[in-house]
């Protein structure tokens, strides 16, 4: 049932957490779960007593190409059977449950899962059926409860959304993307020399056109412009464009013989 | 169109990020987006040129009770119109785009959004249409690009999933839940005195039944048991149960007159 050209979705070497859907109701939700797993780099899916049986074409239709995960999914009669070869079992449960057990946030769980992977231990993540969630007997099979957190005033969480959040945290826990960076395309962040060169060009043209004619205010005005042009990183390509803008503005009107419009008044222009 | 008994979903005081869906295609996805917003504590929804018009009953049907968000959603002809009163605009884009602009992870964006809220600045989060994502002209309206990160081998992200991840990060950025804790119910974590009391009971019974008869191995065996019983936190209630287990095991068979089964051999039993 795999689409041509779909992403290969091959699990990396070593253990990655197994998603166990306990008594899932709708095949569509199994499909969207597979998609969310693929988004977050999870590949192993086990189904405990899916209500409508398995396989179901509607799951593949909802998976947006995460077919290989569904192709490889296994069906189990009980939670015990689904987790028998796992070393650690985490259960997700958005609702408050009156059980005595360790509770982790999704983020802490992801860190723990990565650490278990380092130790080559096999882990399972239990997700309950859409409406009711995991039963007390299911929870008693898990060693740890995962609560995300999310808005307690509105905790109705779609199954695939629940999987998505944990898959996302799993992915991020091993990701080294810098939190903030300037994305450049075919150019580089400008050096301060290039920026100063542009400032020189701009100020020279502003002197020439009379914008900086107030000698007393001139240093402050130049400083203010400098603050603006250094607020964020600028690229060499953007500086070249700005050089062009200044050059064209300063001579364009004359060259094309267009009438000069009424100059806008600026706060410094009195 | 609001269900009776639905959560009130009233936005808290102050600014919370506005979700802007740009040219969304399916009303169902607008509904599931509202649900994901509610999960993560986002309340303000704006729609730019929804393909099928607005309002659409199918959105409410998919919102699982997040009706108030849909009831209050506004429709706009353009991105410029939808963000005119906003101070900062972040655009989500899972696909690589060849633009020069700052890129943040979802986590960094959430921190930034919380910080902007502190400064009482209004923020918008742009999400593109389901298939194509935001166009270059849309991106040029944003000051920051948000890339989550997620598995680059499978970046087909459902619209509501995309909203979910950012809403989740927004919620977590202001959440103080301890990463790991033992959830107790009508009981407390046991003191070391209570634990020692139980160990005394256990060891006395093990002495009485002969399990610790090898004097040379006895100290090590007791230490090993102690390591096991102190591995995780235990509650006073669990200790009471364990006291009962030890007491009943040590006298139960005799009292009920049942035959003693063949004793299992242990590594220490030679």
UniProtKB/TrEMBL annotation, chains A, B:
Which parts of this chain are annotated as the region Disordered? 250-270
Molecular function (GO) terms listed? Answer: RNA binding; RNA methyltransferase activity
Residues in domain tRNA/rRNA methyltransferase SpoU type? Answer: 18-168
GO biological processes: tRNA nucleoside ribose methylation
Alphabetical keyword list? Methyltransferase, S-adenosyl-L-methionine, Transferase
| The keyword Transferase is assigned to this record | yes
Entry GO terms, CC? cytosol
Ranges of biased composition (kind: Basic and acidic residues): 257-270
Q: Which family does it belong to?
A: Belongs to the class IV-like SAM-binding methyltransferase superfamily. RNA methyltransferase TrmH family.
Q: What PANTHER family does this protein's entry cite?
A: TRNA/RRNA METHYLTRANSFERASE, TRNA_RRNA METHYLTRANSFERASE SPOU TYPE DOMAIN-CONTAINING PROTEIN
Q: What is this protein called?
A: TrmH family RNA methyltransferase
């Amino acid at each position: 049932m795999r689409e041509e050209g779909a992403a290969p979705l091959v699990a990396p070497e070593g253990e990655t957490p197994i998603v166990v859907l306990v008594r899932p109701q709708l095949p569509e939700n199994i499909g969207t779960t597979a998609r969310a797993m693929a988004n977050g780099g999870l590949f192993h899916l086990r189904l405990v007593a899916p209500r409508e049986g398995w396989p179901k074409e509607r799951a593949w239709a909802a998976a947006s190409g995460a077919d290989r995960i569904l192709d490889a999914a296994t069906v189990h009669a009980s939670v015990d059977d689904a987790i028998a070869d796992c070393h650690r079992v985490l259960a997700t449960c958005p609702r408050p449950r009156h059980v005595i057990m360790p509770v982790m946030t999704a983020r802490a769980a992801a860190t723990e899962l990565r650490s278990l992977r380092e130790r080559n231990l096999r882990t399972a993540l239990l997700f309950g059926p859409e409406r009711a969630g995991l039963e007390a007997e299911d929870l008693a099979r898990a060693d740890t409860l995962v609560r995300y957190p999310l808005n307690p005033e509105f905790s109705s969480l779609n199954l695939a959304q629940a999987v998505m959040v944990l898959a996302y945290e799993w992915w991020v826990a091993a990701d080294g993307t810098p939190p903030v960076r300037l994305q450049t395309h075919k150019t580089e962040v400008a050096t301060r020399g290039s920026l100063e060169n542009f400032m020189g060009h701009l100020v020279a043209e502003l002197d020439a056109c009379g914008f900086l004619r107030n000698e007393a205010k001139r240093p402050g005005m130049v400083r203010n412009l400098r603050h603006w042009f250094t607020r964020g990183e600028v690229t060499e390509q953007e500086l070249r464009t700005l050089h062009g803008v200044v050059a064209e503005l300063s001579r364009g009107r004359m060259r094309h013989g267009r009438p000069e419009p009424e100059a806008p008044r600026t706060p410094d222009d009195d």
